[in-house]
């Protein structure tokens, strides 16, 4: 497994995750995570 991230802007990161022959690139944000948590709370 290889996990790397780079902080790219305020609140954002570039993430690369590789496990054996599978890999994913994503750009998560602490802002979008908070919105997802709030949406999950609304649906309960």
From TrEMBL:
<protein>
    <submittedName>
        <fullName>Uncharacterized protein</fullName>
    </submittedName>
</protein>
